[in-house]
From TrEMBL:
PANTHER family: MANNOSYL-OLIGOSACCHARIDE GLUCOSIDASE. It comes from Inquilinus ginsengisoli. Keywords: Glycosidase, Hydrolase. Belongs to the glycosyl hydrolase 63 family. This is Mannosylglycerate hydrolase MGH1-like glycoside hydrolase domain-containing protein. Transmembrane segments: none annotated. It holds the Pfam family MGH1-like_GH. Residues 30-411 form the Mannosylglycerate hydrolase MGH1-like glycoside hydrolase domain. It comes from the Bacteria. InterPro entries: 6-hairpin_glycosidase_sf, 6hp_glycosidase-like_sf, Glycoside_hydrolase_63, MGH1-like_GH. Signal peptide: none annotated.
Length: 420
């Protein structure tokens, strides 16, 4: 069974491979290179083709902007089946990227590749990539945390990677919708509209893009003018984990100034993330930095401090209890939003379905936090749901139904990683 599954996973990655980058699915739904997809996909390539794993990341960093940002999408070929494509974004030096970023998981993935392949084979790649990683992390702390709070802000729900999570509902509702773009959408030609973001959300997503485009995507302008600005716990937890892994990489290549710089990032973010723990809620809460209001919506990002820091569970056992309660309410681990809440929609994208990439982060975090039992349960469920429903983009945690795109690259990569 597992052998069949891993062979199928390899075949999917091969089919979605465009030579120097991988598309998330061959179906046409996402005909480009996505930032965190690529990094997570490299974890899959690492299981059977080490060189290809490095190429995936190196292509992504070839698209880095001069200011250090690594865009959330790089458009390499025909992008006519996607909206908004490069012609709409009009972003970046080559006009072949989006103008926003995505969760910075690259340093974590590169450290994983180092641990998998060893010093000899990894060092040249790390020498090339570590300075680029440092430039990206530095960009986050200057462009997205100009007041030095220790938490960086996302300016678009797409930056979170968890596009239509209920965590953004209130902040997004405050954004002007602009003209309707329903007729321009392409995603609903590939996936059922009932499992995708709504028209109201899309109108705002695009209006944000147009507002940023009007500012020429200048980092020094966007933070102040952005109609949407959230310091998200999940995003900052992924950044913090990546900071720790970047520190390790810089130390390996003897960049002492870089290590000192990242040490400051780590200690500021550690304190700021800890300040987002809400004792009464028993959860980490993101904050709308335009209004200063805490966001009381329990999305899966609020569990990711477990992935950022191995002391999280001992400091806050209530967080583990909360996760266990979520799991008691569904068939299959892990829902992307708290089940039982009115906003929970088990089939709609990031409002409830299971995403294997986040499952992997929780598995990794739970092992480090002294809960290998829970990690095993999530691993078992993750492999079983794919065996049952195929390599889909996401899955209904109440039934196991596969949803969204088919033959999905990061789902295949996670199967390879978890089965290995
Ligand atoms: C989804 O997001 C894109 C926009 O970036 C979309 O819906 O068009 C998200 O699941 C995101 O996390 C993911 O990186 C992307 C490609 O798989 O699709």
């Amino acid at each position: 069974m597992t052998t069949d599954l891993t062979e199928a996973a390899i075949a999917i990655l091969r089919a979605n491979d465009r030579g120097d980058h991988t598309v998330p699915t061959s179906s046409g739904l996402y005909p480009a290179q996505w930032n965190w997809d690529s990094c997570l996909v490299a974890l899959g390539f690492a299981e059977f083709d080490p060189d290809r794993a490095w190429t995936e990341i190196e292509t992504l960093f070839d698209g880095q902007w001069p200011d250090g940002m690594v865009p959330h999408i790089l458009f390499h070929g025909d992008d006519s089946s996607y909206f908004p494509n490069a012609a709409i974004w009009q972003a970046g030096p080559g006009q072949r990227s989006s103008g926003i970023t995505q969760p910075p998981v690259a340093a974590t993935i590169i450290r994983h590749l180092f641990e998998r392949f060893g010093v000899q084979r990894s060092r040249p790649h790390i020498r090339l990539l570590a300075p680029k990683l440092l430039a990206w992390h530095r960009w986050f702390y200057t462009a997205r945390d100009p007041d030095g709070t220790g938490l960086v802000a996302i300016l678009h729900p797409w930056e979170s990677g968890m596009d239509n999570s209920p965590v953004w509902d209130a902040a997004l509702a405050a954004v002007e919708p602009g003209p309707s773009v329903a007729h321009l959408r392409r995603d609903t030609a590939f996936a059922d509209a009932a499992v995708r973001p709504t028209a109201a959300e899309y109108d705002r997503y695009i209006n944000l893009v147009l507002a940023f485009r009007a500012e020429g995507y200048r980092a020094d302008r966007l933070y102040g003018m952005a109609p949407f600005r959230v310091a998200d716990v999940g995003f900052n937890a992924m950044l913090q984990r990546a900071n720790r892994d970047l520190r390790f990489l810089l130390d390996m290549i003897d960049d002492t100034a870089g290590v000192a710089e990242v040490d400051r990032m780590i200690s500021n973010t550690r304190a700021a993330l800890e300040a987002r723990w809400d004792q009464a809620e028993g959860f980490y809460l993101s904050v709308d930095t335009r209004t200063g209001q805490a966001i009381r919506q329990p999305g899966i990002g609020g569990l990711l401090p477990l992935y950022a820091d191995p002391m999280t569970a001992s400091r806050h056992p209530a967080l583990i209890t909360r996760l266990e309660r979520w799991l008691d309410q569904v068939e299959i681990a892990v829902p992307s939003f708290e089940p039982g809440r009115p906003e929970f929609e088990p089939r709609r994208y990031w409002r409830g379905p299971i995403w294997l990439v986040v499952n992997w982060m929780l598995i990794d975090g739970l092992k480090r936090n002294g809960r290998p039992d829970l990690a095993r349960r999530i691993r078992r469920d993750s492999l079983a749901v794919v065996a049952r429903s195929g390599f889909r983009e996401y899955f209904d945690p109440t039934t196991g139904e596969g949803l969204g795109g088919t033959d999905f690259s990061w789902t295949a990569a996670m199967v390879l990683l978890l089965a290995g």
